[in-house]
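Duplicate of #3305? Posting structure anyway:
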């Protein structure tokens, strides 16, 4: 961005598109074979059988015929399965918040409202995870997306982190499957925090709220 015909060397870069022919190499292909000795990413790093189905040639995320995938089809599950213990759940959520702050907040903002630092520097603003009334007037298309995100299945968020969506690129190489689910859980917590009622809080938490303490 910021480059145009006044700087043609930047605007028209000497590069090749995927699968484009090349006259530079003897075989006429711009795509080059892997360097001898290259080691493939271990299958275990993809999440194993819990998220993927092994097929000839590698691991895939198959569909169940509806595009939804799911464990029954050998693909990644539709729901995450957090641990049952209270302390384990807190650790699970802490990890999700930490990963969200590192990988997601630069665009989506610390509070999930799409006002991250790079957005403040002029790049595309993503839809908010929280319904923003001003978007209903100023940007109905973004508001419609925000409405969808309130009820989108957990699997949708996982899929977007894995494969990217729109201007967002894939984070599959940066965020392992387990952490993706933890990020999804934290996003859900951000959404719930905007509309939570006292009745949504466990008994112990309500007691803390009534006493002016901090419930988690």
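Output from current build:
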């Amino acid at each position: 961005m910021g480059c145009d015909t006044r700087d043609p060397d930047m605007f028209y870069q000497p590069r090749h598109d995927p699968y484009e022919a090349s006259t530079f190499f003897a075989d006429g292909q711009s795509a080059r074979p892997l360097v001898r000795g290259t080691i493939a990413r271990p299958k275990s790093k993809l999440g194993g059988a819990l998220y993927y189905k092994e097929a000839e040639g590698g691991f895939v995320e198959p569909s169940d015929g509806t595009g939804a995938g799911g464990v029954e089809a050998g693909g990644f599950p539709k729901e995450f399965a957090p641990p049952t213990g209270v302390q384990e759940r807190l650790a699970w959520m802490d990890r999700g918040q930490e990963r969200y702050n590192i990988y997601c907040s630069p665009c989506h903002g610390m509070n999930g409202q799409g006002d991250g630092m790079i957005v403040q520097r002029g790049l595309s603003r993503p839809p908010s995870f929280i319904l923003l009334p001003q978007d209903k007037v100023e940007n109905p298309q973004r508001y419609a997306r925000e409405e969808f995100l309130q009820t989108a299945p957990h699997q949708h968020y996982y899929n977007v982190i894995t494969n990217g969506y729109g201007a967002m690129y894939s984070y599959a190489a940066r965020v392992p499957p387990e952490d993706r689910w933890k990020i999804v859980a934290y996003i859900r917590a951000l959404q719930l925090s905007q509309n939570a009622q006292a009745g949504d809080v466990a008994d112990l938490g309500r007691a803390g709220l009534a006493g002016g303490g901090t419930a988690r």
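Confirmed duplicate; merging threads. The beta strands are 53-55, 58-60. Confidence is low (pLDDT under 50) at residues 46-75.
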